[in-house]
Amino acid sequence: MKRPLLIAAALLFTGGAASAGVDWTSKGMQMAGEIIANPAGFLYDFQQDLESTTPLPPGKSFGVQTGLWGGILPTLAAMPSISGKYRLHAEGRLAPGVPQLDLIGGYWTSPLAESATKNSDTIADAKFNGYYMGAVLSSSVSPRVRTFWGYKRSQLKARARFLPNSNGKYPELLGTELKSFDTGFKDDFLLAGIETPKGVGKLWSIQLNYGLKTQTFSTKVSWYGKVFELGLNIYPEGVLVVHPVWNMHLNF
Amino acid sequence: MKKTILTALLTAGLAGRLCAAVAEDSKIFTPFFDMTLSEAGYVPSAGNIFSGGNVNTQVGLLSKITQKDQLFGLYNFNYTGQGFAPQDTRQFTDRSMSHNFTFEYRRMLNERVRLRPGVSFGHDYSRTGANEAWKNGLYNMNSSGLQLAGDYLFDSDKNGIVTLSYMTKYVKFPNYTDLLREFQNPDNVAGVNGNLQDQTLKQLALRPSWNSFFGGLTYTQQDYKNQKVVGSDGVYNGTKQKDKTATLDFGFHHSLWIFELYPMVSYSMHRSNQNFMRYKFLGATTTDPLNGSSDVSFVAKNYDYNETTLSVPLDLNVTSKWAIGGAISVVSRKYTDRPKRDANNDYVAGTTQKNLMTTLTGSIRKRINDVAMVRLFYSLVVASSNCKFEQYMPYNYTGNSFGIAYNLSY
Fold first, then answer.
1. Count of domains forming chain B
2. Residue A72: which domain range?
3. Contact indicator for B15, B163 with CB cutoff of 8 Å
4. Number of domains into which chain A is organized
5. Which residues of A touch B135 (CB under 8 A)?
6. Best interface-test mutation with B: which of A3, A5, A6, A11 has the largest number of B CBs within 10 A?
7. What average pLDDT does the segment A47-67 reach?
8. Nearest Cα residue in chain B from A25
9. Is B39 close to A194, i.e. CB distance below 8 A?
C-alpha cells in the first residue's frame, strides 16, 4: 500500500516543475503566425458560431436566428447575422420512417467594421461578409434521441486595404508591412449529430462538421430552449480552439 | 510505422464495436451513433504551453434483412490532436485525422454461430503543425481491406461471445519519400525513394468476452512492398522489411456499490527485421559503424521492443448524476537490443533503452442524461527514460493537462 502512495506523492511533487516557464510572448507570436498563414480560416470559425445547423424542433415549420456572442466577439455588433430554417418535410409525413428535412441558410456582414474604416488613418476600405446554405435530415431513433445528418455550403469573404502613414510606412504585423489582404473561404461540409432532451422544452446536442475540400472540422456542443442557444464550439485546429457561443432563435 | 499499427489496432477495436451493435427486434433499421470529444490545455516542463483535442465519431446503420441476415455499415471519423504521448511514438505537435468505412454482412448459421465477412476502406491524414496542409502529410495513407470474423455465442444472458477474426489490408503511403536515400544519393528520383512505406497488413485475433470481461490475443504482420533492410555497411540489402506484433490484453467494466471500475492491461511484443543507421550530422562518415560513439553507428534490431500498458480508471458515483473519478495509466516500453543514448547521442554499450510514462488523472463526471456525459479532468504526466538524447523527441519530462470531455453514445 505504501508504494503506490509514495509514487503518487512523488508524481505530485515533480509536477510542480511542469507549471514553470510559460512563454506568453512566444505563444502570442505563434497564434499571430497562424492567423497570418490562414486569415480566412481564422475568421470562418466565427462564422461557424453563427451558423444554425441543428434541425427544427419537432412540430415547428420555420425558424429564425441571430448571433449574440461568438468566441471573443459580440457578434451581434461585430458581425450581425440572420439565419433561417424551413421545414420541407415533417418526420413520417410521407411514409413511416421518412426523416424530417429542413433547409438551412444564413448571411452576415460587418457594417461596424466597414464604417470604422471610413474614419481610420490606416485602413482605406474593408469588406467582410459570408453566407451558408444547406439541408438537414433528422430522424428519431427513440422517444428521447434524434440523430441528424446534413450538408452545407459555406463561403466567407474578407478584404481590406491599408494606407501608409506620413512616412510612407504601412502598418506592420510581425515585422512585415501589410498593404492589403483579400482572402476568402469556401467549402462543402457534411455534418452529423445527435440531439437529446435536457428538460422540458430544452434540448442538448453534439455535432461534427467536416469540410470536404479543406479538411476544416469543428464540433459543436449546444444547449437550447425556446429563445436562446448556448454553445461550446470547439475548433481543434483553429487559433482560438474553444468558442463560447450565445445565439437567439425563435421557431414557429 | 507506428501509425500503421495504430490503425490496425483501431480496426480491431472497431470490429468489437461492430459486434456490439445489436438490431432491435421491432426495427428493420437500427442506427448507431457514438461521439467522444475532448479538448485540453497542456503545460510541459520543457517547451511552451499548447492545446489539443481528440474527436471520435462513429455513425452506423444496422439493417435486418431477414431473421438470420443483417447488413451493417459504419463510418468512423477520428482526430487526434496535439498532446503528450509515450516516448518514441510521436511529437507533441503531431496531429492525425482518419476516415474509415466498414461494411459487414452478418449471417447466423445457427443459434450459436455467426459469420461476419466485411470490407473496409480508409483514408488517413497526418501533419506536424497547423500551417502544414493536410493533403501534404508525409504519412498520409490510403487503405483497403477484407475481413472475415466468426462469433460463437455461448451465453446470451451475459453477452458471452468468442470471436475469431482475420483481416488483411493493403496500405499505401502516397506522399512518403526516404530522406536518407535522397541525402545519400541526390540523383535518386521520387520513383525510387517513394512507395517505401507501402505494405500489406494481416491480422489474426481471438477475442472472448463475457459479463463485461473482455480480452484477446492479436497477431499483426506488416509486409513492406518495397522497403529494404539496412545493413551494417549502411547499404540497403535485398531483404524486405517485415514487422510482427503480438498483443495480449484483458480488461473489464464492473460496478460495485458506488464504485465503477474499468481497468485494462495489455502486453505487446514488436519484432522487426529492420535495423537503424544513426548519422550524428549531415555528411558524417565512419570506419567503425559498430562503435556506438562514432559519427555513424549501426544498431541491429533497433525497433524490437516489449511494451506493457496498464490503465485503471475508477469512478465513485456520488449521486446518480455526479461522479468523482481517478485513474492511473502506465506505459512501459523496453527495447530488446537498442542501447540507451547519452546526451551526446552516443550509444552506451551493454545497455538497453527503457521508457516509462505514468499518467495520474482526477476528474468530475456529470451524467447529462441516459446517453450523454461530460467530464472535467486534470492529468499529471511523468515521462522518464534512460535515453538522454532529447534533441528531436522529449524523453524525460513532466506535464500537466486540464480539459473537458463529452461522450454521447446511442
1. 1
2. 28-54+65-251
3. yes
4. 1
5. 215
6. A11
7. 94
8. B48
9. no
- Is A25 in CB contact (< 8 Å) with chain B? no
* Domain of B248, in residue numbers: 2-409
Q: Which of A18, A38, A206 sits opposite B44 (nearest CB)?
A: A18
DSSP, res A22? -
Give the pLDDT band (50/70/90) at residue B13.
Answer: very low
CB neighbour list of residue B341: distance below 8 Å, 6 or more residues apart: B347, B348, B353, B387, B388, B389
More confident residue, B36 or B195: B36
In this structure, is residue A167 part of a structural domain?
Answer: yes
Task: Give ∠ CA B326-B330-B334 in degrees, rounded to 5.
Answer: 180
Q: Alpha carbon B190 to chain centroid distance?
A: 29
pLDDT greater than 50 at residue A11:
no
- A3 in a domain, yes or no? no
Please tell me which residue of chain B has the smallest CA distance to A29.
B48
B79 reaches A (C-beta below 8 A): yes
Asked whether the predicted pLDDT for residue A15 surpasses 60, the reply is: no
Cβ distance of B53 and A236 shorter than 8 Å: yes
Query: By percentage, how much of chain B surpasses pLDDT 90?
Result: 65
How would residue A18 be classed by pLDDT, with cut points 50, 70 and 90? very low
Q: Is the ipTM of this complex over 0.90?
A: no
Nearest CB among B35, B77, B380 relative to A206 is that of B35
What is the CATH number for B314? 2.40.160.50
The Cα of A80 is separated from the nearest Cα of chain B by a number of Å equal to 29
Q: Which of B409, B408, B401 is nearest to B53 (CA)?
A: B401
Q: What is the per-residue pLDDT for B107? A: 96
A60, part of any domain: no
pLDDT tens-place string over residues B348-376: 999 999 999 999 999 999 998 888 899 99
* Best residue of B371, B375, B396 to probe chain A, by most A CBs closer than 10 Å: B371
pLDDT at residue number A21: 58
> Backbone phi, then psi, for A105, in 5-degree steps?
180, 165
A7 located within any domain? no
Residue in A191, A215, A217 with CA at minimum distance from that of residue A205: A191
Class of residue B185 by CB neighbours under 10 A (exposed 0-12, middle 13-18, buried 19+): exposed
